[in-house]
Amino acid sequence: MFPSIVTPQPTTSRASQAKGIKHPPGPPWPTALWNTIKFGQDPLSFARELRERYGDVVTLQTMMGPWTLVFHPDGVRHVVQENHQNYRKGGPSDQVLRVTLGNGLLTNNGESWLTQRRLIQPAFHRSRIAGFGQLMTEGATAWLEETQLDASDPLDVFQQMSGLTLTIVCKALFGADMLPYKQRVFEALGTAIRLEAQAFYMPGLLSLPTPQRHDLYKARDALYAVVDELIAGRKARATGSENDLLTMLLEARDAETGLGMNDLQLRDEVITLMVAGHETTSGALTWTLLLLSQHPEIDARLREAYTRVLSGRAVTIEDLPQLTFGRMVLEESMRLYPPAWVFGRQALAEDEIGGYRIAKGAFVLLFPAVTHRHPDFWEQPDVFDPERFAPERATGRHRFAYIPFGGGPRGCIGNQFALTEAQLILATILPRYQFRLLPGAKVIPEPLITLRPRGGLRMTAHRQDEL
């Protein structure tokens, strides 16, 4: 049975009332139904409209109860870093994700989360990530050879990047080829992600015996079956010399207790790493290829950098410090189209943000998709300009004006893995191919669990030596 999704109604103490601290402004409560519909139809535009009309902290009345929307980097910093003990994963977004991810690092809380974080952290040390560099480059090269790109045959770039990054993360996790499982995982993840996004706005989909709940349960079980099979296979093949992520998780022991993970914890963490490890990177790559196709002068400059540094040879992780413009392009792409476009917290106790009262139990939403385009921190915020991330321009910028991987103690543990992987994939593909959007194609962002192009992204790939 899936849990019903209920947002606790905020309560406000008499002490804060006596201080005269105001509730955040926002649309009046009779608009709750309309707000819910509008948020469900186009949350990105609606959130920007709310910031422009009401300011950087907004109360939004919805059919699931009032939400508090925080857009200013100061408010983000307060929630995820300065007073993070008061804000736990919770609310409808977290309850929806738990259906698939269980009690993994992304959804866990409290001491249990801290224990898991300590166990997993060594697996993502920079030295470990460096060891995966060759795997990432080889995966991108193999994809080029297997796909046999042809300019006369358009491809769905989002689907292709999803397949590539899923293959790489599973190779890093299990040391195994993902091909026999890829179609099953794609179908299960596609169903789960879409139904979980719907359930955020329609809690009854999970709390009632609906067809959607049945389909989500079926997709989750299919995903569990694949992961259990991969874990079992990995254990059966163990020789003692493996260096994959699963081996690190199996061998991890808490420094204080000496305990490792039980089988359920292991599965939850593996699924979390599998989903988060390919969804965010594939999204970043997809939006980057789109933006480069729309800005040929930036595309040409990036290719010139690859030619100058690589001279036709395969990229290695040691080349990345010289390919700084590639990282700048990726960072600007994730500013405009952050894969994790929104994330939520729940207030454990009453608080204050930006001079406004945050009630106990309030569901607080932070919006990288809006904060990344905040006009007080970004000049011409809707323009694609990788030079924003040149060291001389980035110096002094508010640390929390740019949060593609969150921030504070709960910042994404795999951020360096994702950035390294994306840079190496681009540096493998782009020296050989240029991607072009199909004429007349209209690309619409679709904010599901991550930010995707609605209906995929159809592009053609042209060999550089034929241009």
UniProtKB/TrEMBL annotation:
Q: What cofactor does this protein call for?
A: heme
Q: Which residues does heme bind? A: C412
Q: Where is the composition biased (Polar residues)?
A: 1-16
Keywords, ordered alphabetically? Heme, Iron, Metal-binding, Monooxygenase, Oxidoreductase
Q: Which SUPFAM superfamilies match?
A: Cytochrome P450 (SSF48264)
State the residue spans of region: Disordered: 1-27
**Annotated PROSITE patterns:** CYTOCHROME_P450
> Which CDD domains does this chain map to?
CYP132-like
What is the name of the protein in this document? Cytochrome P450
Q: Upper taxonomic classification of the species?
A: Bacteria, Bacillati, Chloroflexota, Ktedonobacteria, Ktedonobacterales
